What we know:
- The complex is a heterodimer of chains A (479) and B (323).
- Chain A is an alpha+beta fold and 479 residues long.
- In chain A, 32% of the residues lie in helices and 22% in strands.
- Chain A has helices at residues 3-8, 17-28, 31-48, 76-100, 105-108, 114-118, 170-183, 185-190, 199-209, 232-242, 299-304, 317-320, 328-336, 353-361, 387-399, and strands at 52-53, 62-63, 67-74, 140-147, 157-163, 220-223, 245-247, 252-254, 260-264, 267-270, 273-276, 309-311, 343-344, 348-349, 366-370, 379-381, 404-408, 414-419, 422-431, 433-436, 440-441, 447-451, 465-472.
- Chain A has a 5-stranded mixed sheet with strand order 3-23-22-19-18. Chain A has a 5-stranded mixed sheet with strand order 13-5-4-20-21.
- Chain A is globular, with a radius of gyration of 23 Å.
- The two termini of chain A are 35 Å apart.
- With 323 residues, chain B is mainly α.
- Chain B is 74% helix and 0% strand.
- Chain B contains 16 helices and no strands.
- Chain B has helices at 3-33, 39-52, 56-62, 68-76, 85-98, 105-123, 126-129, 131-152, 157-183, 196-208, 212-219, 225-234, 242-256, 262-277, 280-286, 288-311.
- The longest helix of chain B is centred in the N-terminal third of the chain and has 31 residues, at 3-33.
- Classes of the chains: A alpha+beta (479), B mainly alpha (323).
- The A-B interface holds A 46-49, 226-227, 236-237, 239-240, 245-248, 250-251, 253-256, 262-268, 286-287, 297-298, 301, 304 and B 1-6, 94, 97-102, 105, 108-109, 112-113, 116, 157, 161, 256, 258-259, 310-311, 313-314, 316-317, 319-320, 322-323.
Amino acid sequence: MSMADIASGYAGAPVRLHYRQLQTWLSDQNMETLRARHEEAELIFRRVGITFAVYGDDDGTERTIPFDIVPRVFPAEEWRHLKAGLIQRVQALNMFLQDVYHDQKILKAGIVPADQVLGNTSYRRAMHGVDVPLNIYAHIAGIDLVRATHGDRAGQFFVLEDNLRVPSGVSYMLENRKMMMRLFPDLFSTHQIAPVDHYPDLLLSALQQVAPPTDRYSNVVVLTPGMYNAAYFEHAFLAQQMGVELVEGQDLYVDDDDVVYLRTTQGPRRVDVIYRRVDDDFLDPEIFREDSVLGPAGLMRALRAGNVSICNAVGTGVADDKSIYPYVPEMIRFYLSEEPILNNVPTYMCRRSDELSYVLANLKDLVVKEVHGAGGYGMLIGPTASKAEIEAFRQQLVANPDHYIAQPTLSLSTCPTFVGAGVAPRHIDLRPFVLSGKDVRMVPGGLTRVALKEGSLVVNSSQGGGTKDTWVLQSAGES
Amino acid sequence: MLSRTADHLYWMSRYTERAENTARMLEVNWQMSLLPQSEQAARAAWRAMLEISELTDDFDAKYANATPANVLTYMVQDTDNPSSIMSCLRAARENARAVRGSMTTDLWETVNTTWLDAQRQVGQGLLRIAPTDFFEWVKLRSNQSRGVHIGTMMRDEASHFISLGIFIERADNVARLLDVKFLAAAEHMEQDLEHVEDFYYWAAILRSLSAFENYRMMFRDAITPTRVADLLILSPRNPRSLVACMEQIVELLTKVRNASSGRTEHEARSMLAQLKDMEIDEVFGQGLHEYLLTFLAGINQLALDISHHFLVPIAAPEPAASV
């Protein structure tokens, strides 16, 4: 493969400085070696069991998420900016959550409409007035970002979504790094790549910091829905890396003393912090869904008694809902008196009549999203929709404008990616993980997802997306 | 540790051990079938494979004849048979996957790779082309899991429950094998072994338990049914004997002891004491079949008690009224 192959994908655009070294290396590799490495990666992922079960597949097939061997690279300076913006955003979101479950100052100030918060299906009345340690609700946040390729803000990052419930993907960030080091050790000796492996340590210390006060050792557990959950590998991986128990609902019970216990071979053992990977609805059949067996009955009693911490807290979904998203820049100004560092994607709220008229007049150019939806359902992508689809959607929109927001279609940036025939540009996004305990901390990196189909903007693993290792280059003297 | 975790680890190793023992029996039977023998003896030998695992009825419901090919297919790769080698390897892997964080990465990858490779080998028709290679491989992988377990796991409860699964399963499998083989051996019970077929019959049993060379080392003498039974039941030096399994079980129960497991430990100790006190002539005196049936009932009870005291979660207290 020649350098021309890579450059041609970029229509003659100059290779950015921080990719130059990587590109030199790539051009020294022959196609066969790269292909062999690519296949080796797939084999290793299977052996290690980094797979997910696919719902509805009875033959027990497990899939791997395609791994791309060309990393995505951030220069140190760019990362510093991004990190400052993420920390600022997550701080404001946690303050918003604390506020809406207590004094509701931001609602009284009229900055976020009260009905949009209190009437939101993700607002948990059970959390009203409940104090949580350090006032942290979203201990783990996965913020989805994309980068614009043109327009007056080309090169800038835009937040697509704040994932504050049970964000997943961090195990891929860690495993992708391990895989790259294994496949291409020489790359790591020639680049100064900031390590990410200490993520589980940061996570464990954040979880321990929010334990209810005790003079004992705080017992942290990871709560999983079980091995058939698509993210089970990650749950098991994180529990093992932190050295804590991986538990299912059936392993826990809440006794009359409102304390959560584990059922062990040596009798009951107290639990202090639950890093739960189970949705709110299934956490406690006494309060939420009665038919759930994924969480122990009485968990909310234990929480209110201050005997256990749940991470992320119950009710964080109200802050990452699409209907609340447009207000995040205002939250930053309100709580922190700072200007937002990261951009929101311009968003039209269809509940406002002037914005609705604009949306209705421009449906073919916009992406319209349902506010309570997640994962790409109940959504209209104007530029690719047929006339009939647009008209059908228009009816829904007019009937329930409150349920929708609209955004311009974004041109996602691309990154060189290994495809069957060589290396070609593919669209990418980024999900860095932000941990909140006594401080807000991050490892330098994140999960880069890539749309493997040419021209596709969909990076979801369920729809043909893959992942890449994400490098933050370390500048001299920095740790 | 979590009761559920202990349960998965225990069953992971039981299934691995079961796959190994099944492979051992099938391998020897396959070797035997290559020797000249009567049609009837051959059929009886393949039938015995099914009897050992109490699968005769299920097999007959599905297959017309106990041909070697049918029995091999059923015992190796038929997923309707929960004790087939493939079913066992899959169950071992599923149990491991459920608690993969509780074992070393080395052990998890060993168990996972065994299952992935088994599917590939069966898919490529290895069983048809070279059944012995496949059985050798199953044994090797089981030996590997055990080695990785011993060589990498912390010596704590997780490790003990894995070992407990191995020895409970092994004691059960060996006792069943002996019972079926001795019952079917009425015509081979001559102590002087005049017939060459007799030699091969007993040698096959020894080989299926990797005990042929051990026998030679221990007795340095001709192979007789009584000595075979002695080596496989009462010899503490032979790692697959019933007494060796019981020694391990007692030791492990002591290590994982909890508030309610005292009686179980006591039962295991008395089973061991009895094995240690016995002479092989006494065993034959009261009837080997009866003796083995009693032993199997004892092992079965132990397994139930272990489940009850360690593995099955204690019943949750009634939830208090909602606040």
